[in-house]
Amino acid sequence: MKRAITKDEVNELEVGAYQGTIYVADDEKSAKEAIAMLQNESLLGFDTETRPSFKKGEQYTPSLLQFAASDFAVLFRIHETGLPDGLLRIFQSEKIIKIGIAIERDLKELKDIASFEESGFIDLNTMAPQKGFENVGVRRLAAMVLGIRISKRQQTSNWEADQLKPAQIEYAATDAWVCREIYLKIKDL
Questions:
Q1: What does R_g of the chain's alpha carbons equal in angstroms?
Q2: Euclidean distance between CA atoms 120 and 183, whole angstroms
Q3: 165 alpha carbon, distance to own chain's centre
Q4: Residue 32 clears pLDDT 80, i.e. is over it
Q5: Domain count, the chain
Q6: What is the CATH number of the domain that holds 81?
Q7: Residues forming beta bridges with residue 36, ordered by sequence position
Q8: Does some domain include residue 51?
Q9: pLDDT single digits (tens) 46-99
Q10: Which residues is 45 bridged to in the sheet?
């Protein structure tokens, strides 16, 4: 397993994406169902997406919250559902490990929506250097650990569109999924 990689080496890799079942929770009922599924998991990949801002000083709270479990991913359209109590319980659970990359900002922005004390979060950007990796970030870690290139094409798309495009759904699920997969491969190094 490589511990360092160049941008050119990343760009030579095949694009990889999450291929499993993806649930989109965009109302109270679907959010409740998705939360019930996640409560039984012990390890979740985690990420958020925020509507891009193209004006100086303009900022938005996260629009989408993604979790990847062992055999499914859930995308919460939190600009529609808010952060239900069940999600806050997941954020606060030390029994459910949540793995992400550069999560400090994500958590701060989520706390702008609802107050909670997080527990059980692991940031791969902190963990990877402790395991000898010279590069961090989702693209480089996915390349070194999983041997795939992650497309970032959808990163600045409109996460508050009436309907998410299939490419947005795949991108969002992939970002959470790779965090979980990277963690599983490097945790015992």
A1: 16
A2: 14
A3: 18
A4: yes
A5: 1
A6: 3.30.420.10
A7: none
A8: yes
A9: 999 998 877 888 888 999 999 999 999 999 999 999 999 999 999 999 999 999
A10: 68, 99
Task: Please state, in angstroms and rounded to a whole number, the distance separating the CA atoms of residues 64 and 7.
Answer: 28
Over range 112-123, report the average pLDDT: 97
**What ranges in the chain are assigned the alpha helix state H?**
7-11, 28-38, 78-81, 85-92, 103-111, 124-130, 138-141, 166-186
125 part of a folded domain: yes
Give the C-alpha distances (Å, rounded to integers) separating 97 from 44, 57, 121, 186. Answer: 6, 34, 6, 15
Using CA atoms, how far residue 12 sits from 98, 143, 156, 182, in Å, is 30, 10, 23, 19
pTM over 0.85, yes/no? yes
Residue 2 forms part of a structural domain: no
- pLDDT score at 2: 87
Is position 37 within any domain?
yes
CB 124 within 8 A of CB 179: yes
Residue-number span of the structural domain to which 71 is assigned: 7-186
